From TrEMBL, chains A, B:
<feature type="domain" description="MoaB/Mog">
    <location>
        <begin position="11"/>
        <end position="173"/>
    </location>
</feature>
<protein>
    <submittedName>
        <fullName>Competence/damage-inducible protein A</fullName>
    </submittedName>
</protein>
<dbReference type="InterPro" id="IPR001453">
    <property type="entry name" value="MoaB/Mog_dom"/>
</dbReference>
<dbReference type="Pfam" id="PF24102">
    <property type="entry name" value="FLAD1_M"/>
</dbReference>
<dbReference type="InterPro" id="IPR056596">
    <property type="entry name" value="FLAD1_M"/>
</dbReference>
<dbReference type="Pfam" id="PF00994">
    <property type="entry name" value="MoCF_biosynth"/>
</dbReference>
<dbReference type="InterPro" id="IPR050101">
    <property type="entry name" value="CinA"/>
</dbReference>
<dbReference type="InterPro" id="IPR036425">
    <property type="entry name" value="MoaB/Mog-like_dom_sf"/>
</dbReference>
Amino acid sequence: MAAAERIWTAALVVIGDEILSGRTQDKNIAQIALWLNLQGIRLVEVRVVGDAAVAIAEAVNALRARHDYLFTTGGIGPTHDDITVDAIAEAVGVPVVVHSRARAMLERYYISRGGITDARLRMARVPEGAELIENRMSGAPGIRWGNIFIMAGVPAITAMMLDALSGTLEGGRPLLSETIGCWVAESEVADLLGATEKAHPGCQIGSYPFFREGRTGANFVIRSTDAATLGACRADLAARLMAAGRETVDGGI
Amino acid sequence: MAAAERIWTAALVVIGDEILSGRTQDKNIAQIALWLNLQGIRLVEVRVVGDAAVAIAEAVNALRARHDYLFTTGGIGPTHDDITVDAIAEAVGVPVVVHSRARAMLERYYISRGGITDARLRMARVPEGAELIENRMSGAPGIRWGNIFIMAGVPAITAMMLDALSGTLEGGRPLLSETIGCWVAESEVADLLGATEKAHPGCQIGSYPFFREGRTGANFVIRSTDAATLGACRADLAARLMAAGRETVDGGI
């Protein structure tokens, strides 16, 4: 049944020198991946680029053509290093304009916070033809232009924007997953894992080893868009591990 | 002085369905970025792709041509979903061979751990012509092929491999940075930041806002490869913020 299924895909461009310098630990990849999955959309590719217009434009143009949706995070604030809107407008070949509703939102937000300034008005600039994505947290909206969704770098603000988008994007069936944990070196059950995956078309089994408190273990994650297929594969894997004398931990370790 | 400076660059391909599904929070981007900076090499681009040979090959071939060094993480274990070595060998057009020293290392490591098996021997397979990168933690080595460095997905193992590589790669001057924190909305000092950056060629100033305990603040990170240039820019920025009535926090908030 998986063969004929339409898979909706997305890509993400994470924009920011602070990620590439290692100063900031990115949290948007995992956050957006999890959210997309709930929408029935699969994150297929991520690129991280610096605050450089050419790099942003190249990544955006390569990925927006390949996927149903393209998300970006970072570079939409009020300071000189926030160049995402200009870079994307240039990439898609439209001018940057001030969005009147975004301007009104910012003016309202800043009434009690020192008033509007030129720097703050930068956050009302959008590629021409864009729609806004609301953000109750900081006044500055996210931006939708075609299949491009321009989000904040601060994870908590992007969370608000994702919340505002929830349920509005067309997707397919979410990718379901179940996890079985096992205190075993994955190399000891490698053949068993491969054979189990082969016996259940439409399922993928990922093996994720770890070392904790001096012990070796692994979590096996089974993924499928079909609940019955997933359940059968999960039960089979647990049975094969038990038959091999391995104790399993439902839900993972 | 920055104009004539040769900048050594690197890219990173993070390989793994678990990152794209959001199950696992990547830690290798920040870890490798920080390590590269100590070697005087700048991380310029990162791509995250799934466990799919075509996607891995495309990313590897695009990036190895553009940068001095290309790192990959993930997909070098013993299980069926570990396809990085095969995908990279295919991408660069060489066969996969068993590396005799890697085989000996694995045999030695597994003497007290149940002995060598076909699955474990998978971790001795390399693209023909490769050298090994040692890893004291798990017996399975990393792999160097030309300018490609193939590392583990488990961050602690990659840390060991980076340790083994430290000081062996040619690089330039490390990018230095200093941070000034300020309890201010970045939009209130946006012009000041831009003007300061402009006054100090060879420096970049990044502005990273946050919201903590109901308060708005920002950290300003000044970056340069030259210590004197960096120090002058840092002092100027602190002076301008103080002149504007803003208290600053050395080292960031």
